[in-house]
User: Fold this.
Amino acid sequence: MKKIILSAASLAVAAVASVSVAPTTSEAIPAFARQTGSACLSCHFQSFPTLAAYGRAFKMGGMTDVGDQALVEDEGLSIPAMVNWTAMVRPNFTSTDTGTKVNEFQFADQVFMIGGRAGEHTGVFLEVGGGAYANAQMINSFDMGDMKAGVTISSTGFGEDAGMQVMSVWGQHGGLLGGKSLTINGAMAGSNSVNNGVAFWAGSDSWVAQLGFVNSVESVEAGVQPNFRFSPVLRGNYFLEAGDWEIGLGAIAVTGSVKTQDQKRTGIDAQALGEVGDMQIGVFADWATAPAGTATATNAYNASLTDSRTGYSLRATVKPTHNLIFLAGLGQDKTGTAKLDKTLVGVEYEMYQNGVINLTYGSDKDSTTNVTTKTTGLEFELLI
Assistant:
């Protein structure tokens, strides 16, 4: 992998963010493909949402790179000649069995997405649903020699590190390749709802570090900060090559208090992306812990007032052909003696790079109630 990835960011393409407050989408976003004029898989490994090196470079460039699309430019002005937007259509069938079976069919997460270049150094990603922005990210990026640095302002459900999220283990990633709710860091972040905040970040093709400030506890709706109090977030990632494989390592720490509620957790994650023969293989793992809260300051990541919450996940994806991906994974979410053991298997068929069919089966066993929740899902996801 070349060491000039960031300077070659004009080759970066397609989608780098998912498409709902609760991440669910599993294909690329055509808005970015229109802007760059390149195929979705130039940015992604196997399929969306797993970011390849060029995908990370595109995001760290503020999503500003443009291919053949015309620009309207003047002093202090540099925007695409046409607004790049995407609409998502997602019919899905879900069957949940806890001893009593419940079947549901719905069209979920129907949203419009607008994303891409807003200026020479600024890019945006917005999701419009229900008359409001369900997700909003504004990334400002500047060249600093061989690295880039910037600041992101966001209101998302992608996780506290959404300011510059470059790993593919949790967060913005949904659908089959995102592991659904399998990851423990994703489960903890999801329990903390929408994160509004700002992140200062810097990085290169081999590392990314960010200091963020988030507040989800007091948010009455996305984008609203009543008392303007934030908890700090430290996030670091490192990428290295091992033969034909790229290894990614990461760590996160959220520590702070907002009024009478703490936001405290630490986590680590790792991923390996490579090939065996003609098959692409991805391996993803994470671990997290959140301390118990107290009667005067509960922890947003742990409902218990006596026991810490810990967990892990491990999943692998295999792509034997250009349009077929298999996934298998397991995880555990434990608080005291109570634990939830999770397994997930699935297959994804890629009709197009912007449209897939997912079939998944998950089994979550609760040791406290001795109830196993079995969930079968069939999703058709198409973005235009």
Remarks:
- The longest helix spans residues 53-60.
